[in-house]
Amino acid sequence: MVSANREMVVYCFDTLVAHYNSDETPPPAFDDGQHPLFVTWKKVTNGSEPRLRGCIGTLEARALINGFKDYALTSALRDRRFPPIQPKEVPLLECTVSILTNYENALNYLDWEVGKHGIIIEFTDPDNNVRRNATYLPEVAAHEGWTKLEAIDSLMRKSGFNGTITESLRKRIRLTRYQSTLYTMHYSDYASYVKVTRGEAPTINGAKPKH
């Protein structure tokens, strides 16, 4: 099984830095393969709790190299919940890559464990007959301190459902649970890694150099 690793995060930072510098992305130092994956960017300011700046991925298997390249940029620049990440923010970023594994059909909407499983919900909106779906990665519910019920209701809202959430509607949810491996790295660790492996620290057009 392929696990998320440091080189995958380095590649995501490389991709974002190359984008701002209008440069070619250095070749990745990990093997390709086909897996569902996510890229998450968070911003860390003044030692406070990291704040989400973008998280996008795919629940379908994708070639890892192209997938991380695409989603590193999509999650940084085109997550509709946030303005695009600016070059000056990059030194404050933390990047997490997730590789999703062990997909299982759950027996019902409560058949999963907080902190262990990511969840995908699918249901039909009773107000307009639209099919809705959404996902949370395994770490989300635990990080937010949610119960399973709170996570499900939040996920229904994330899917775009604005009606009344009833127990009978929850019971009609089709839930898929999955697990993931992830690797997180702050920009400062990325910069140190690049300096050691390539001889000089990265520079970003539009970001102030650190003194």
From TrEMBL:
Residues 1-194 form the AMMECR1 domain. Coiled coil: none annotated. InterPro entries: AMMECR1, AMMECR1_dom_sf, AMMECR1_domain, AMMECR1_N. It comes from the Eukaryota. PANTHER family: AMME SYNDROME CANDIDATE GENE 1 PROTEIN, AMMECR1 HOMOLOG. This is AMMECR1 domain-containing protein. It comes from Aquilegia coerulea (Rocky mountain columbine).
